[in-house]
């Protein structure tokens, strides 16, 4: 009987020991990134870029409207070749606007990636540092939309990461 109890304890002990050594943390990277001054500077720069593109788009749009108005104001007896040329110019200009919009969107996305990459790297390094210092086995990004179940012994390390980055 004693052998069976010792065998059961010997089999169960490693399972309990490993369950107790796994330390799981969660971190709200979104709130950390939003609290960083670098993020505000990046957002300001992106807004400036978007404003420049919006201003240029408005100019293009005004020119397009002018061209359409000019075509619509043409007399009924205007030569067909002139009408066709104006229509082609409008179509070409419309393609130019679409190309500009696509190029602007790509540039804004590229700039956002370039501006945010160092920020996310800094946050990741702080999370890794807190994870190593705290002996965590696993740290998951906290997203309330995606969390289905959360139970102890999970630790929210967001405050430690913010402290590591010098944020309040």
Describe this structure in words.
With about 170 residues, this protein is mainly alpha-helical. The protein has a three-stranded parallel sheet with strand order 2-1-3, covered by helices on one side. The protein starts with a helix and ends with a helix. It has helices spanning about 1-20, 30-35, 35-70, 80-135, 160-165; strands at about 25, 140, 155. Residues about 1-15 have low confidence and may be disordered.
> What is the H/E order?
HEHHHEEH
Could you give the distance between the termini?
Answer: 59 Å
Largest sheet: 3 strands, parallel
Instruction: From the alpha carbons, calculate the radius of gyration and give it in angstroms.
Output: 30 Å
Class by SSE composition:
mainly alpha
Query: DSSP helix count?
Result: 5
